[in-house]
Every structure is written in C-alpha cells, then in structure tokens.
Write a structure and sequence with these properties.
1% strand; globular; ABC transporter involved in vitamin B12 uptake, BtuC; 13 helices; two-stranded antiparallel sheet; single chain; 72% helix; mainly alpha
Length: 306
C-alpha cells in the first residue's frame, strides 16, 4: 500500500510539468498556431527560474521569471510566424535549438548547485488520512493549481465569450476578421499566454521536481507535451489525464527498480517515449476523429487580405 501511494504521488508530481506545458500548447493551437519551440522554451525557463530561486530563495519569483522568459520567446515566435508569415514548423524548431543552446551557455555557472526542497502543501485533515493522505494530499501547491487550471480552461473555452472568440480565430480566422476581431493580436496574446504556462512548467522542473540545473534536463518533455495535445484531441481535461498517464509511465522505471524487477535501466528509460509513439500511432488510425476536434486553421498563415 505504501509503495502504491508513493507511485500515485510521484505520478502526480511527474505529470504536472507535462500538463502545464501541454495546456499552454493547447492554447496556442486553439488559436491556430503550432509551437514546436516548447522544448527550448522550457529549458530557458528552467535555467532562469533556477537562477532566480538560487539568488532570492523565493519559488514564486522563480515561477514568474520562467513564465516571463518563455512568454517573451513565444512573443518573438509570434512576430515571426504571425506578422512575417514564416513557416511555423521551421521557426519553432529553430526556437528549440536556440533555447537548448542558450540555456546550456547560461547554465554553465549553475551546474552542480542545488536548491533546498520547498515545503509541500499538506491539506489540513486530509493529508493525515491513511493511503490517500500521502498519495493525494501532500503535494506542492502547483500540482493542485494545475488541476484547477485544466478545468478552468474547459470553462473558458466553452462558456466565455473570449474563449469562443479564440476558438473562432483558430477555426476560421477569415470569418473572425470579417466580424472585426484582430486575428493577429489575438493569436499573439494566445501564443504568449500559452508560452507563460510552458515557462512555469520549465521552472517547476528545475525548482521543485528536481531542484537543480542540468543541461537538457527537460529530456524531451516539450515534445511529449506537444504529443499530448493530439492525444487529448485538444480538450483540457483529457490533457490532464494524458499527462498523468505519461507521468505514471515515467515513474514505472523507479517502481520496478524499487520492487527488484530485473529489467535493463535503458529499456525502462525508453518507456515514456515508446508510450508517446504508440499513442500517436493508435490515434492516427482514425484521422477523421482527429479532424473533428482539431482547429482547422492550425499551422496555416493568415493575412488580412485572404
């Protein structure tokens, strides 16, 4: 029972940065923009967040710094793909390469340094329950805020005027423009808002999840988060479920090792990425189902004259 509770707890913790990043990318794609720069943005936010936490000792300033860093990078991406109509895929890949290289350069002085473990938020009363307490109610506050955010986005997209406008921009930018909505500005704001969530995910990795800085520490989580948006068919609640599923797969390697199961460590390390490929392959078997939920203008440039 203790091991099962520990597996559930670590799954929630491991799934949180994936969920945050995927929700940010979901906002981007709802507006019609594909952001392939998430991996580089997470790395930049991770090193900046770690530096701020190390110098100030304040985790929330670190989260804010990570969010601002990634939002600025997303803004630069937006200027290129929204106003200059550069290819979204090539520009996003360039941003990933840029973020990976620059974060490695900035983080040279922080390699080997660690942060103190910030206190988890124990929910009064519930955290003392047997099994459920350590499994569900002794986590960092960001774990709970991520869950609230996911369901908040469900309400935002389905029940608010701003959410409907954002979806309209992603579904039919020409019609939204004809109705007087500033499509380019809306896309830029959505890109920066989503980028901020990607940045919080990166900062969470280096400040809370593994309180240290290591070059390339995201280990492909930006790409997994991108795959999660398709896995979830662009629905926030399903993004949350998928993030915990992939987080659980990631934690299985430690669970097996702790249980004495003789499985090569290299094979266990492959599990999250194999699971990503398998899920995408299964999803692609029904392309019509994907098209029913995918924003129709995703990845396509928009010019007011069109």
């Amino acid at each position: 029972m203790d091991m099962t509770a520990s597996l559930i707890a670590t799954t929630l913790s491991a799934g949180t940065p994936l969920a945050l990043a995927a929700l940010g990318l979901l906002i981007n794609e709802k507006s019609g923009v594909v952001n392939l720069g998430a991996e580089g943005m997470m790395l930049m936010a991770a090193v900046v967040g770690f530096a701020v936490a190390l110098s100030t000792g304040n985790q929330w300033l670190a989260f804010a710094a990570g969010a601002v860093t990634a939002a600025l990078l997303a803004g630069a991406l937006g200027v290129l793909v929204i106003w200059l109509n550069t290819n979204q895929y090539a520009t996003g890949l360039a941003l990933t390469l840029f973020g990976a290289g620059l974060s490695a350069f900035i983080g040279i002085d922080y390699v080997g340094k660690t942060l103190p473990n910030f206190t988890a938020w124990n929910i009064p009363g519930l955290s003392q329950l047997p099994f459920f307490g350590p499994a569900l109610f002794r986590h960092h506050l960001m774990v709970y805020l991520t869950i609230v955010l996911a369901f908040g986005l469900v309400w935002f997209f389905d029940r608010t005027r701003a959410g409907l406008v954002l979806r309209a921009v992603g579904e039919s930018p020409e019609s939204a423009h004809a109705l007087g909505y500033p499509v380019r500005r809306i896309r830029l704001l959505a890109l920066m808002a989503g980028g901020a969530l990607v940045g919080v995910a990166g900062a969470y990795l280096s400040v809370i999840y593994t309180p240290l800085w290591v070059q390339g520490m995201t280990a492909g989580r930006g790409w997994i988060a991108l795959a999660l948006t398709t896995f979830a068919t662009w629905r926030p609640a399903r993004v949350l479920l998928g993030a915990y599923l992939f987080g659980g797969v990631t934690m299985l390697q430690f669970f097996f090792q702790g249980s004495g199961v003789q499985v090569p460590a290299q094979l266990l390390s492959m599990l999250p990425y194999v699971a990503t490929i398998v899920v995408l392959a299964l999803m692609s078997r029904n392309p019509q189902w994907i098209r029913l939920h995918m924003p129709t203008s995703i990845g396509k440039p928009f010019t007011p004259e069109s």
